Amino acid sequence: MMHVRRLTKSDGRKLVLYGRAPLPESIEAPSPAGETPRAWPELRWHPLRAEWVIVSAHRQGRTYHPDAAANPLAPTLDPRRPTELPQGPWDMAVFENRFPSLVAWDDPAAPLPQDGDAWPPRAPARGVCEVVVYAQEADTSLGALPLDRIELLFEVWADRTRELGERHFIEYVMPFENRGLEVGATLAHPHGQIYAYGFLPPVVAAELAQQALHLEVTGHGLIGKVMDNERADGRRMLFDDGTSVAFVPGFARYPYEVWIGPREPLRRADDVDAPTRASLARALKTVLLRYDGLWGRPFPYVMVLHQAPTDGRPHPEAHFHLEFYPPLRAPDRLKYVAGAELGAGTFTNDSLPETRAAELRAVAIEEPAR
Amino acid sequence: MMHVRRLTKSDGRKLVLYGRAPLPESIEAPSPAGETPRAWPELRWHPLRAEWVIVSAHRQGRTYHPDAAANPLAPTLDPRRPTELPQGPWDMAVFENRFPSLVAWDDPAAPLPQDGDAWPPRAPARGVCEVVVYAQEADTSLGALPLDRIELLFEVWADRTRELGERHFIEYVMPFENRGLEVGATLAHPHGQIYAYGFLPPVVAAELAQQALHLEVTGHGLIGKVMDNERADGRRMLFDDGTSVAFVPGFARYPYEVWIGPREPLRRADDVDAPTRASLARALKTVLLRYDGLWGRPFPYVMVLHQAPTDGRPHPEAHFHLEFYPPLRAPDRLKYVAGAELGAGTFTNDSLPETRAAELRAVAIEEPAR
Prior knowledge:
Two copies of one chain form a homodimer. Chain A folds into two domains: 3-202, HIT family, subunit A; 221-303 and 318-325 and 335-362, HIT-like (HIT family, subunit A). Chain A has an eleven-stranded antiparallel β-sheet with strand order 1-2-5-7-9-8-13-14-12-11-10, sandwiched between helices. In chain A, strands 4-3-6 form a three-stranded antiparallel β-sheet, with no helix packed on it. A two-stranded antiparallel ribbon of chain A has the order 15-16. Chain A has six helices and 17 strands. Chain A starts with a strand and ends in an 8-residue tail after the last helix. By secondary structure, chain A is of the alpha+beta class. Chains A and B meet through β3, β4, β8, β9 and α2 of A and β3, β4, β8, β9 and α2 of B.
C-alpha cells in the first residue's frame, strides 16, 4: 500500500510525497527560495550528430556541495530556514528541480520560439526535471534501505512514469541516479533524478530501433535474448530468482557495468506487478550491497532506467530495465570517458567482464532481508 | 622541410622520429621493456547500441603517473634505464603504444577468432595505437611550441594518416589528445595519441552519414555550411584569416567547445598544403593560448581530429577538422558526463556558447609569431 500526497510549492513547483503510512492532510510544501528564477532553456540542433543539445544558461548558479545545515533535501526543521521538504511520515519525495534543464514551456510569459531560419536551428527545451529523495536521512543510501522501501522506489518510478507520461508534451521518462563525487553528484543526501523529455533522446531512440528490428526479424525481444544468453552462460550472473535477473553483460563498456530487469518483457515501470516488484527490489539491493562491499566504500555509479516511450505508440519492442555505469576500474582509478569514447564512440573495457562479475559474486553479503 | 627516420624497437614496436633538422643514421630505438606483453584485445558486440566494445584486459597494468625520473616520453639519458625515445635532434616522435587497445593481429601466434556462435559475438580488435610526443621537453605544451613546430604536428598527422591508412586492415585514423588530469592523462609530458581503427567508429560513421546526406541534398558540404553560418553570425568566431577558422559552435555541447578547420573541404590531414598548414597552425596556437590564458592555468581538454576514412572509398562528404571538448565549466568545476549524457545521449550546456566565445575572445594574447 502506497500513500501519496500531491502538493504545490509557493513558487509553483510540484512536490509529491510517498509513504507506507498515511500522510496527514496538514502537510504543506516548503520552498527554500521565495521565488524560483524563471528560465527558458532551449534546444539547439547539432547538425553532424543530428541531435538536440540543451542550452540552459541559468543552471550555472545551482546548489553545489552545501554544508549539512544547508542540505535542501533534509526535512525543514526551522520554518524560517525552509528546505525543499516538510516534516512528516513520508518515506520518499519527488519535487521539481529548481534549476531544470527542461521546462514545461506552458507559461504565458514564455518567449515565442525562435525563428526557424536562425543559426543554429532552435526549439523550446520542453520537459520536466525532478529530484527523487530516497529517504529522510542524509547519511543512508539506496542499498542500505530495507526491501520494502526499495519496492516503494519502484512504485514511485511507476507513478512518475504514469503521471509525467500523461502530459501531452512528454515523450520519454528517464529516472536515473548519479551517485558519488566521481560522477558529479553535488548533494550527498541519497537521491536520484528524473528527466521527462519532450523528445525521444538519441541513445534511447537508437536502442529502441535495434530492439524493434530484432523483434521484427525474430519475433522475440532483444533484452530477453540478452537475458537468456547470460543465464545460459552463467559466468556473469549476479542474481536470478526466475522472475528478475542481474548480470554484468558480456559486452560491458564499464568494468563493473550491471543490468537488472524482469525476465518478462514489461514495457514500462508502471507495468510491474507486486510480486515482480518484490523480486526486482531483491535484485537491486543485492547488486548495491555487492557494489558497496567490493572495496568497503560507497561505490559510485550512474544508474539509468530505460523503458518504453510515452509517445502514445505501443512499443512492443521495449523492455524496462536498469543499467549501471560505475566510473571506477580500481578503488583509486577512474575509467575516463575521453578522446576515444567522446571522439569516436569506442569504449575500451580494460578488464574481462567475466573477471569483474566474479569479483562482485565473491563479495559476501547477507541475504537481502526485510 | 621534414626529416623522417623510421625505426623498430627491440620488442618489434615501430618508432618514427620527425624533425626540421637532418636526423643522423646512427640513432637507434630504445625500449623501456625487454619484452612487451603480447595481448589479443577483442571486440564484443553490444546488441542494443549496435556497436563494438573493445575488451583489452592487459591494459590494467599500464604506466600511471610515473615520477619525473621514470618519464617514458623523455629522451634516454642513461642507456641502462632506457625510455621510449632516443637522444638526437628530433622534434616530434611517434611510437606504438606498449598497452594498445587495438593490435594488428597479424602475428602467427595470434589466436584464431572466436566461434561466431559465442555469446556475445566477438571479433579481433584490429588496429594500431600510437603515442605522439610533441616535444623533447616534459614541461612544455602544444600551445607553447613555436608555429613551425605546430605546423610540423600537422605534417606528422598527415604522415601517420597516410602510412597507417595504407595498411589493408585500417579503416579510420583518429589523432587525439587527452590533456590534463581531468580527462585522465597519465603522463604530464606533452603528447597526443592516434587510434587507427580496423572498423569505422560509431560517432564517425554517424557524422559522415549526416555529411553525405547534406552533400547529396544540397550539393555542398555540411562542415562548410557550419563554417559559413558561424562566419556570418560572427559572435562565436575565435580566428578567421580567410583560409582557416576557429569558433565555438552555436550548438556546443561543452561550455568551451571549439572547432578548427580549413575552409576548403580537404578530406584528410594528408590533403593539406603548406600555406593551409601555416594558417591552421596559427588558428590552433591562437585557441590554445586563449585556453591557457583564460584562467591562467593549463586548460584541460579532449582534442579529436575528424577526417575521411581510409577505407578506399572517395568520401567527398568528409571535411578534416579538429574538435575540442574541455571538461571544465568554471576554474574549479567539471562538466560531468553522467546520467543524462550517458543514459540518454542528451548534453546540457549550462551556458550560452556566445558568452563562452566572448570570454575566450577577451583573453589577451600576443599575435602568434614564429
